[in-house]
Amino acid sequence: MPEGGRGAYLENEILEVDGWRLVELIYQAAIDAIGKAREHLRAGAIQARSRQITRASELVSELALSLDHEAGGGLSRNLAELYDYIQRLLQEANFRQIEPPLAEAQELLRTLLEAWQQAAPHVAPTASPAAWSQEPEHVPVDCLG
Q: What is the pTM of this model?
């Protein structure tokens, strides 16, 4: 469980948001985790780097698990393939202890987040998030904060 005021705020926000905002929070948390992993890599902090890469990987897995392939069709399949690619980038960065795969994974997630933020106002009022993905139901709060 997150500690401190930020953790309590984040936990309350997560419990009260709709599926659209929750997906946005997961994207942002994964981007942040990769950013921290890059910092730890540069500092030579192996354990901290590995923890952040693992955290990012768990968040990307959550995004992949929330995909609704029936409702999402080709878009859902494309996202699943992209999430798989991002996972491979994270594994490569962790195994080889190099930054370029982290930078690429972070940039891909930023692009997806931007697309999500642009689509949400146009789709969210008229369709449930299931049209793109299922709401993630089991995101541990400490993964996001």
A: 0.77
